[in-house]
Amino acid sequence: SLDSSLTEVVEDSLPVEAEPLNGNGYGNYADSEEYYENGENGNGVKPKIVYGDYGIPIAYVGEDVEGEKSYSTYEDVVIKPKEGFHYRAKEIPDEWELTFDVKNVKFEAPKVKNAASKEGEIIIQAYSSYFKSRLRKMRRIFRENPEIGTVIDIAKLSYVRDDEVTIIGLVNDKRETAKGYMFEVEDATGRVKVFLGRDKENASQAYNAIMPDSVVAFRGQPGRGIFFANRVFLPDVPKFRREKPPLEEKVYAILLSDIHVGSNKFCEKAFEKFLEWLNGEVNSRAEEELVSRIKYLIIGGDVVDGVGIYPGQYNELAIPDIFDQYEALANLLRNVPEHITMFIGPGNHDAARTALPQPGFYEEYAKPIYKLKNAVILSNPAVINLHGREFLIAHGRGIEDVVDFIPGRTHHKPAEAMVDLLKLRHLAPTFGNKVPIAPDPEDTLVIESVPDLFQAGHVHVMEYRIYNGVFVINSGTWQAQTEFQKMVNIIPTPARVPIIDVETARLRAVVSFDQFCEGV
Amino acid sequence: MGEELYSPEMKAYFESLQREIDRAYEIARKARSQGKDPSLDVEVPQATDMAGRVESLVGPPGVAERIRELVKEYGKELAALKVVDEIIEGKFGDLGSKEKYAEQAVRTALAILTEGIVSAPLEGIADVKIKRNTWADNSEYLALYYAGPIRSSGGTAQALSVLVGDYVRKKLGLDRFKPSEEHIERMVEEIDLYHRAVTRLQYHPEADEVRLAMRNIPIEITGEETDKVEVSHRNVPGVETNHLRGGAILVLAEGVLQKAKKLVKYIDKMGVEGWDWIKEFVEAKEKGKSSEEPKVDESKAEDSGAREEVAEKVEKGFYYELYERFRANIAPNKKYTKEIIGGRPLFAEPSENGGFRLRYGRSRVSGFATWSVNPATMLILDEFIAIGTQMKTERPGKGCIVTPATTVEGPIVKLKDGSVVRVDDYETALRVKNEIEEILYVGDALVNFGDFVENNQTLLPANYVEEWWVQELVKAIEELYEVELKPFSDNPREAVEEAAEYLEVDPDFLESLLRDPLRVKPSVELAIHLSKVLDIPFHPYYTLYWNTLKPEEVEELQKALLNAQIEWDEFRKLKFAKRVILENDPQIKRYLELLGLPHRLERTEDRRKVIVIDYPWSSALLTPLGDLEWEFKAKPFFTVIDIINESNPIKLRDRGISWIGARMGRPEKAKERKMKPPVQVLFPIGLAGGQSRDIKKAAEEGKTAKVEIAFFKCPKCGHTGPEHLCPVCGTRKELLWHCPKCNVDYPESEAKEFGFRCPRCDVELKPYAEREIKPSELLRRAMDNVKVYGIDRLKGVKGMTSGYKMAEPLEKGLLRVKNDVYVFKDGTIRFDATDAPITHFKPKEIGVSVEKLRELGYTHDFEGKPLERDDQIVELKVQDIILSYEAGKYLLKVARFVDDLLEKFYGLPRFYNAEKMEDLIGHLVIGLAPHTSAGIIGRIIGFSDVLVGYAHPYYHAAKRRNCDGDEDAVMLLLDALLNFSKYYLPEKRGGKMDAPLVVTTRLDPREVDSEVHNMDVVRYYPLEFYEVTYDMKSPKEIKFIERVEDRLGKPEMYEGIKFTHDTDDIGLGPKMSLYKQLGDMVEKVERQLALAERIRAVDEHHVAETILNSHLIPDLRGNLRSFTRQEFRCVKCNTKYRRPPLIGRCPKCGGKIVLTVSKGAVEKYLPTAKMLVTRYKVKDYTRQRICLTEKDIKTLFETVLPEKQRTLLGFSADVCEKMIKERTGSSNGKNGYLDGFNGKNGKAKKAKVGSEAKKEKKPKTEKSKDLKKEVKKEKAKARRKRISLDEFFGG
């Protein structure tokens, strides 16, 4: 496996040998350092493979940090609202609420046998409860689907005869056979092999859409050691949504993400132009109307480029200092008119916990943005209620795994991947692939209630679509194509500003500033 | 052919080896024929040469004879193709299908090209197939499937295998491979991905190069997956995997493309058609290079043009000009400093003055990628270097191991009491070791000329040394007095006396000086005398590092000396200083330190401290300064030595021009090989033996084990079981073949009739089945057989990975337990050691008596004198080896095991009867390197108390190793012959590597790795050599130093090899690197940095930063990421799960589930990293990475393992908290303290540095403020850094 270089900590397993072992073991033979000298850096230390953006593997090798840099933190960017510009939004009362934020979740510490339990045991317990809580939450979601029928535990399947029953569980494994599809499904009571004939309704679509560890329901009959499914259900979102009462006044929200301040590819000029535009430097009456009614600005993570995020980053940073990156960001964002409320959440480049979920930014590093008067700091993920409409905001790392597991998905069409996540009602269903998941005892990445809008970023491509009444949008970036992206052939769409009509939770307009972005 | 190749002595030597070999084989045959082992024959065939090895390794049978004939007629490369012709023409039998012909041809040809040693022809080529261009015209083409082990054959052979493949293709009349765009882009992606995600390729081709190669290579280069890394170009037709194909990638990138130039030569030589594209490719590349180069040249020319203009006006000093050319031609190579591992110190920055001083030469134990240093250097470098420790080096090669040579200079150190000492011997080193404040000069590195040739490294200007001086002496004597003398040898007494008379010196002294100029040194007054009368440069021993100082500084020094108290003396009317006493001015003292001049501090009566320079160093200092009779005046474009040589009657040569940087690589190793977990018998026990696979435990507990194992049935009495011989009636049993479907067993004879298919189910029969065994019964019987009872444990294996799953007889395990030895996967017992070269030894060094040596055929010393004393130097015979004591002790146990085995298991007489280590002398071993499948016979002739395996460079080369840190194994010949079996080898890819599939009995230097052909074999390098090094020529232009290559094919290739530098003892020096003795990473890194702080040629801040960036941070970040993506594992059955099973236990066996990456693994290096960013001046960026990583780790566990809140009151010493406070603290107003720090990143400080250090041209990176000790350090460093080449030229 890729992680063979990891130090495997062998708890209460092999007895300790009196002498250290040579690296020539049976199992380890082929991997042992002496024999694959070239496979490492020649020091007996194997490079670690990690997955960079887009899930592209990079060997985590040493980097050069040479040379001093001089840079600006945009102290001089001071933009005042255009005199006489009329902001209709100022007169509309605020109406927002944080419906869900990870910071507000009270995690129950995992139950362990005794207080003196080892850390390892506690962590295993935490991960176990994480998946159990996922199953619980998903069962709740399935319950709303009238077609599901009688749900029974896998362990009780042997008591069932002939009746059609439903099992709900995490998918461990799936594969295609000559006649259909085989799954291994697990719930809290046991695991069972499930066979779904090729001829069954939606079989192949469902097969393709199911990611490892996602929760699905199978209706069918148990056989000898195997469950014959007639139907498969994804948690999904209901086909139709009840319409929400109209708003008295049009109110707009701007969706941004992946600003990457500090990167030498950050489109600073374009961002400044955008800020000027927010301050009333508009080109037409139509734009004036838009700007006038903007009341919210949501930023979905990677607000700065961070430090030490990927090997060799130093060379691609204009600001190689995390404090100054946030300082620079705050210096830019302080130019957002005060009546606009900003919601800012973290991403993988931010000074924030690396594993999902991300409760927020590290306050001590990102202090300048915490100090912005009109900013609200979000967790990743978070749900904001704007005038009665639910906006699900996530950074979107789960897209990486979708691209890995679901045929036909690419980084260039992130909205498709986001729909897949929505169907599975989870922001990062698969464990152990590319998305790092923290050992929290509760799964806060389940999309428990159906949002009106689902925003993500991460892949730097703006794209949107509507799925069963949910507006799904990836909000693009403010970073021009990096060397790395060039190499892996990722073409970002920087400096595009999607404007959302809060009432309908649909796109009202996209304003582009990419002509001010170098390299586009 | 044979006779003219060997002298009678060599012939006798090889014959005696062969007699011993035959004896061992005979015993082994007797034992094997009893039928207690998988095969009735010895399974290690002998081969005398390459052809024999090829036939044994890959076949076809009978090919060896043809290879010999063809090689004789056509040479190796062409012979490979001729063999292809003959195989395909069916001369070696009908192989069935075209594919089989192709496969055989490719394998045999590649084996010929790789000398039949490496396992690449077996393991590196997974398959050869004939496929169709279905996406094009559906024509047939040839596909070579490469696997990971192709790496072992090296780039050139990899490239050649493609050429051979194409030849085979044409021979079979197949069409070309016509790749689609998909195929091409897939390979482009794979090569790039491999480089990024798996291993940095030595040569990382551009996308267009890959495209060109893919379009033009007429066969398909493909292979099996080697790494679980997925590509994005999936499901390409004909490509079976969506993962990386490491073998194919290597062959294309590091084979065909990297070795394109070499390949062209072979294409011409072998006359393969259709490869014009590669010629064009090479030409285009060369052109590209040359079109680039002129640009560089132009700019250089401009540069030097500008200088020359100046030069027309001003005169330049000789050394000034030399340094200038040096700097223009040979840039410091920083590559080896890009990575520094925690606990493995940097000894010298690239080309830094004070680092390793280049000394050209080869000691008895160096050359072939091995450096010798003075053992004192090893000690003074805190014993981080022991004998055999690997270093990564700046040049000539990338790495080396280190051996001792007492005749090269050791370090020059400054002690805590302020004195400076030259440490040239071990005793002094031991004495001062703990008193060292600064290592001013690390000492000499003896690097042989051959390594420069091998690496095509431009020759660096030679530093002035005794071996050069003595030749100038000899030359001057000849020119002046017409007396011919020879250095490094005995001279006719008359000649010596005549010269001595002219020179007015003691003839005995002159004689010994000539004989051993490295040890015998004239007194300083005699040195002055010789320089005066012969007009030769001052003796190097008394020459100081004058050019480390700037002329202005020497001017200052001279002024200070004018006020010094000097005692004079006379020798033949020559004045010389006997003692100098100077005021203790720190500046002046520093100059003396930098000169490398030994001196000390003394308190005068009025309690002032003064600098005292004693004889002879007083004279070494004052003689070049004309005893202060002329005034030293700095002048532009002249170095100190230039100025001295202008004014002083006695001239100087620079002793410190060329410096080489190095850091520690891997530690030395000499250790028995154990598997993980250790195994004593290749017998499967499953889970019945518990976690330690203990068969004894399973037997005691009366368990039965269900394991996959081969069973045998007695044709007479019907007994079945894992033994080969029937325990009831003693008949050789028959293997039972098993039908996995209907569970029926068929004895081999029946199975054969059915074509090894089940007659009922038509399923292929398997040689093993899952069967129940009763360990208690089997063990009891085995114990009775060999009468071994009362063992503590007997470690088996969980399951067999071999194709047949035949178990070893338990008796072998019992006897191994009794003798405390362990077994390797193939049934042999191995001892691993770092390879170290040795060409000459002294009997006393290896603990063997002169009498015994004579018995072994050592009758004369290396100068041809009869061997009488144990301190004479003897040339080693090529297949003789000197083992580490550890190896001796272990092999002694192995010998007892083999004897027990012979006596108790096979009922044969004991063979070794070894009581003590010395009893093993004269016995044979097999040397075998990883990645190879051919061993070589060696003979033990002695032992040394070091952790390396000393053997002739040829011997290592015969295993395809050089000595830059490689290690490999020895096993006792009889152990291998008795116990090795192919039936034990794992079936997976690479299973046949590192197994003695064939053994070479007679070493032929022409058939070993050609790297050793570059080793030089002379007694000394001629004067001419030292002179031309100043021209910085390519080593290939030097034709007058004899190398192994020049002797190939003559008897001299075996004998009469010489060395340039002797050493007192090949075992003198630390035995074990400090690295291996230190505990955790914090301790390792602390010691490493303590050393860095001490070495003048190392910048400890740079070291700290590099350790963080190249070792600690990648580890921390990597583990952090892995933690959150980790697998989970069942403690009991070891099943792995992507996530913990919901039921909380292992669904398979109910075992407990544990993490595979623990919290501890994630945090492991955090304390070390924090220590480094606290104590050393590293970039803010690096410090922030550490602090963020710490925070990332903390927050990862915050919901599960809530930490007690630490009080944030008051001052915190934590570097991260301090940093945060500084950056975000209360004073965050516009003009607060932080604004100067914030975002300006040292600009303010730079200005400060600039104004503070007036003489500094290059602003030094600022130091961390927070450390008092750094301030102290800074002063010292500011001064010591002054003399870089940059500054030297006032750049």
UniProtKB/TrEMBL annotation, chain B:
Q: Which InterPro entries match?
A: PolC_DP2, PolC_DP2_cat_dom, PolC_DP2_central_dom, PolC_DP2_N
Q: Which residues cross the membrane?
A: none
Give the residue ranges for region: Disordered. Answer: 288-308, 1230-1275
Q: EC number(s) in its UniProt entry?
A: 2.7.7.7, 3.1.11.1
| Record key words, sorted | DNA replication, DNA-binding, DNA-directed DNA polymerase, Exonuclease, Hydrolase, Multifunctional enzyme, Nuclease, Nucleotidyltransferase, Transferase
The entry lists its GO molecular-function terms as: DNA binding; DNA-directed DNA polymerase activity; single-stranded DNA 3'-5' DNA exonuclease activity
Taken from the record, one Pfam family name reads PolC_DP2_central
Task: Provide one Gene Ontology biological process annotation.
Answer: DNA-templated DNA replication
Enumerate the spans annotated as DNA polymerase II large subunit DP2 N-terminal domain.
12-283
Q: Per the record, where are the segments of Basic and acidic residues compositional bias?
A: 1249-1273
Q: Does the keyword Manganese apply?
A: no
Residue ranges of the DNA polymerase II large subunit DP2 catalytic domain? 791-1084
UniProt KW Coiled coil keyword: no
Family, similarity comment: Belongs to the archaeal DNA polymerase II family.
Question: What biological function has been recorded for the protein in this entry?
Answer: Possesses two activities: a DNA synthesis (polymerase) and an exonucleolytic activity that degrades single-stranded DNA in the 3'- to 5'-direction. Has a template-primer preference which is characteristic of a replicative DNA polymerase.
Q: NCBIfam families annotated for this entry?
A: polC (TIGR00354), PRK04023.1 (NF003103), PRK14715.1 (NF011303)
The protein's assembly and partners: Heterodimer of a large subunit and a small subunit.
Protein's name according to its UniProt entry: DNA polymerase II large subunit
Which gene is the coding source of this polypeptide chain? polC
